[in-house]
């Protein structure tokens, strides 16, 4: 993710301190990276950075120096290789003007080869020697200031300021003449230090460019199935406060095959970045309108329909079986197969409550008789179903589970006279419990993908209900370098 993961030299950050975040209007899915999440992101970035420094080769340095008693020496340092870096302390701070990451007291080891040749009137025959040395960087400071801006629906990462400063460095010579040690310290210390600084700042610039490319690579919409897309275009600029970063995406479902008609939804967005006292890295808030847009898209696509011609996988529906429930039906159509056409008659009503999501689903169940290859609708029963939907995080998706609360049936129309509603009610109850609710739960299990960068996973997520929002508070874990490296290959 590093996308959600983000990042002076502690300059002046104007600090805005409030536990509330003004979400960007029209962003129906919002993500907040908390201070814990920022720490995680910082550590992740530093680790990735260190990984990219190791085995880094610094350019060769060559100097001619006058050495008393020895003469003119041409000294070449080559194969200067970064062996390892250790970071003692680091910090991340956010403010309105950016994100500052600072590393202090870092140490590093480098290895190098040296060689020299001397010629002078004293030693007419050229003298030369070569060997290796170790360089220890004792105290290094690294800092960078970043900012995130929305550019036409994608996030752009800006590196505003960065620097690396080597405060102290020592050299251990393996072999060689003692004058060489003095030459290395006097003539080369400064250039080795600035070479290290240059190499590290260059890597920072490249690393941030790579991270920015990853952000550019994020989709603006996710295709969910044949019917719907999820619009994950970023809305507005990320809001940086003193301990968190808030971002928002459009978050609405749109129909795949139609020109989308923008829906007007009310805007009243102030969301809390708190996770009910739980220290979590991120909080993803989903507005009720996301579910409403899903309801509308699937309803309009006509995909809320189910034809059933057998019960529980065994009994074929037949008028003969129904002769006690609907005798008139048996009289008109003796021993004919039947089917039930279950159609949702208007977009399900969805409302986030304090403990779940309340839904009301309006269903028309048409009883069809199949006679000589013809479908003859004979009666229609309407059912208003009230159900609650509990959410859970499964992998990186948010999935739901419906619980039937109550239902109400009435006869909409009939070509076979009055029906025995008590019996119909009992029949519907069984159809709801054994067919309709399990079917809907099967569909809901697929869930909605939460916007998170590939390669990262939610961990120990909790769901909070704060009408009209629901929120998932979670930690994040990194699954492996595989994805990032793949992306890097793509991009280079
Ligand atoms: C950030 O703001 C909170 C109040 O929301 C305050 O307690 C905290 O000290 C602030 N942190 C910094 C570093 O200013
Ligand atoms: C450069 O240094 C590495 C150790 O850091 C060593 O393995 C390698 O052989 C050296 N290369 C040359 C050309 O000396
Ligand atoms: C540098 O080398 C020393 C000894 O070889 C080792 O103890 C230390 O951990 C190394 N430091 C880094 C940053 O690799
Ligand atoms: C790390 O930093 C702390 C505080 O600045 C210091 O006391 C400690 O000696 C440092 N450790 C190393 C290994 O440099
Ligand atoms: C997705 O959301 C963005 C931002 O709200 C909007 O400009 C764009 O038109 C939307 N795309 C679709 C296909 O609705
Ligand atoms: C099912 O019933 C609906 C009306 O409730 C009707 O529009 C649709 O065509 C029917 N489907 C089938 C396959 O009979």
Automatic annotation (TrEMBL):
Residues 1-19 form the signal peptide. Residues 33-258 form the Lipid-binding serum glycoprotein N-terminal domain. This is BPI/LBP family protein. Pfam families: LBP_BPI_CETP, LBP_BPI_CETP_C. It comes from the Eukaryota. It comes from Lupinus luteus (European yellow lupine). One of its GO terms (molecular function) is lipid binding. GO terms for cellular component: extracellular space. Gene3D superfamilies: Bactericidal permeability-increasing protein, domain 1, Bactericidal permeability-increasing protein, domain 2. Keywords: Glycoprotein, Signal. Residues 276-481 form the Lipid-binding serum glycoprotein C-terminal domain. The lineage of its organism: Eukaryota, Viridiplantae, Streptophyta, Embryophyta, Tracheophyta.
């Amino acid at each position: 993710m590093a996308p959600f993961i983000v990042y002076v030299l502690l300059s002046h950050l104007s600090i805005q301190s409030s536990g509330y975040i003004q979400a960007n209007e029209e962003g129906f899915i919002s993500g907040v990276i908390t201070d814990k999440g920022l720490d995680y992101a910082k550590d992740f970035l530093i680790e990735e950075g260190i990984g990219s420094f190791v085995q880094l080769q610094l350019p060769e340095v060559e100097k001619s120096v006058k050495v008393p008693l020895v003469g003119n020496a041409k000294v070449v340092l080559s194969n200067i290789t970064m062996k390892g870096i250790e970071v003692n302390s680091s910090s991340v701070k956010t403010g309105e003007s950016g994100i500052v990451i600072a590393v202090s007291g870092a140490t590093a080891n480098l290895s190098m080869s040296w060689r020299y040749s001397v010629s002078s009137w004293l030693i007419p025959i050229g003298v030369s020697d070569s060997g290796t040395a170790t360089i220890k960087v004792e105290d290094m400071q690294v800092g960078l200031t970043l900012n995130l801006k929305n550019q036409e629906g994608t996030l752009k990462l800006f590196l505003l300021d960065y620097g690396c400063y080597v405060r102290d460095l020592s050299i251990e010579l393996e072999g060689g003449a003692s004058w060489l040690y003095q030459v290395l310290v006097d003539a080369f210390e400064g250039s080795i230090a600035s070479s290290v600084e240059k190499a590290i700042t260059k890597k920072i610039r490249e690393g941030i460019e790579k991270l920015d490319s990853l952000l550019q690579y994020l989709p603006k919409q996710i295709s969910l199935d044949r019917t719907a897309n999820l619009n994950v275009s970023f809305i507005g600029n990320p809001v940086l406060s003193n301990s968190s970063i808030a971002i928002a995406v459009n978050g609405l479902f749109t129909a795949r095959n139609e020109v989308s008609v923008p829906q007007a939804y009310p805007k009243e967005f102030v969301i809390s970045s708190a996770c009910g006292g739980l220290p979590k890295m991120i909080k993803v808030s989903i507005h009720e309108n996301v579910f409403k847009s899903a309801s509308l898209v699937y309803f309009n696509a006509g995909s809320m329909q189910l034809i059933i011609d057998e019960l529980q996988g065994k009994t074929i529906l037949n008028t003969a079986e129904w002769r006690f429930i609907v005798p008139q039906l048996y009289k008109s159509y003796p021993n004919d197969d039947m089917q039930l056409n279950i159609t949702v008659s208007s977009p399900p009503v969805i409302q986030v409550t304090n403990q779940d999501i309340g839904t009301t689903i309006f269903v028309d169940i048409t009883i069809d008789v199949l006679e000589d290859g013809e479908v003859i609708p004979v009666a229609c029963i309407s059912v208003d179903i009230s159900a609650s939907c509990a959410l859970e995080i499964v992998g990186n998706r948010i999935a739901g589970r419906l619980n039937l609360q109550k239902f109400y049936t009435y006869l909409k129309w009939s070509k076979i006279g009055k029906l025995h509603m008590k019996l119909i009610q009992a029949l519907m109850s069984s159809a709801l419990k054994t067919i309709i609710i399990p079917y809907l739960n099967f569909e809901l299990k697929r869930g909605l993908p939460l916007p998170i960068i590939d390669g990262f996973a939610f961990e120990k997520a909790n769901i909070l209900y704060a009408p009209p929002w629901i929120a998932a508070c979670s930690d994040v874990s990194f699954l492996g370098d595989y994805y990032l490296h793949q992306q890097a290959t793509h991009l280079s």
